[in-house]
Amino acid sequence: MNENTPKITRLLVPLVLLAVACGDSTSPEDSANMNGIWFGAWSSSISSSNGSLIANIVQQGSSLVGSIDLPEGDMYGEQLTGIVNGYEISFGDIAQQITFTGTVQGDTLASGAYEDHTSEDSGTWEASKNPVDGTLTIVSAFDSPGSMPSGLTFADGSFWVSVAGSEIFNVDTQGNIISSFSILPGLHASDLTYDRMYLWGTAHFDHQIHEFDTSGNVIATFSSPGTAPTGLAFDGVHLWNADSSGRIYKLDTSGNTLVSFVSPGPCPNGLAFDGAYLWNIDIDAGKIYKFDRSGKTVSTYDSPGGYLSCGIEYALGYLWLADWTEAKIYKLRIG
Fold first, then answer.
1. Residue 100 above 50 pLDDT?
2. Which H, E and C letters describe 45-111, residue by residue?
3. CA dihedral in degrees (208, 212, 218, 219; nearest 10)?
4. What is the mean pLDDT of residues 164-168?
5. In angstroms, rounded to a whole number, what is the distance separating the alpha carbons of residues 163 and 196?
6. N or C end of the chain: which has fewer CB within 10 A?
7. How many Å apart are CA 245 and CA 264, to the nearest integer?
């Protein structure tokens, strides 16, 4: 899955990673239970390529059906199959251009290796099953590059963080500063998202949404649909905007409202998209909500950062949380 891998092959590699299945030679009682939604990450051992993946798996006896998504590759709903012998798994695409091996641990964790015979790429993968309602565990944390971090988005292997004032920092996954810039004077971006080319930010007090490049040059601006825009996410085609008045809006990139619905919590802030679902942190409720694009809540979690955590992002198989009061960025394991 290096940068020269053909697009379809690159997308299939991590998509197939989670098609872990149950083998025909083993009864269901002796095999891993793969039913559920799996969140994970893949990483090439040949190049610096990596990304996240989501699989919605339905087990039928000793076989597996469902869909697997690769958000970084802009591909969703890829159908794959595989087999498992007990808790040892072996799977691949129909043409067997890509093969995988791995192990399932306790029905909730899976990991292994992949090999792409077409691009001569190989690497590792890991995933965990997401419970209907579970916990978010802090894995690690790093200091925010500035005070009162609110906006958070992942782009091309690193994070962008908006802090107090008008400054936006680019940091690696350990928190080391790569670059920074100031956007419009006095603008505080309540949240950030990335559309594979440009950054977008919400201006809470100005009731606007801005598109800008990674040097801070504003490309476009339009009025937000609500009076208090906070969270912002991009699903590959559309923008999603949380407004702290209690609504979630689906927008096109010109600012036209396509859909809106009541938010799961009373005061929604940061918003993220994992390739299949939206995630929203609510500062009044101290909760993190996972919901589909029709507004149906799938899971509810206590926010590890408490009541003043504002920014949220899904990247590399984990949730990442910007804590306003502690000036920390937390890495969270789901489940």
1. yes
2. CCCCCEEEEEEEEEEECCEEEEEEEEHHHCEEEECCCEEEECCEEEEECCCCCEEEEEEEECCCEEE
3. -100
4. 83
5. 22
6. C
7. 12
d(CA 272, CA 201): 13
Q: Are strands 152-155 and 82-85 parallel, antiparallel or unpaired?
A: unpaired
The Cα 45–Cα 157 span in angstroms is 15
Sign of CA dihedral 68, 51, 97, 130: negative
Residue 111 and residue 119 in contact, taking contact as beta carbons nearer than 8 Å: no
| Rounded CA separation 55/44 (Å) | 19
Rounded CA gap, 55 and 91, in Å? 14
Identify the residue with better confidence: 133 or 143. 143
Cα 145 to its chain centre, rounded Å, is 22
Coil, helix or strand at residue 273? strand
Provide the whole-model pTM: 0.66
Residue 323: the pLDDT is: 92
Residue ranges and CATH numbers for the domains of the chain are 7-130 (2.40.128.120), 136-334 (2.130.10.10)
> Nearest 5 degrees, angle CA 74-CA 317-CA 246?
80
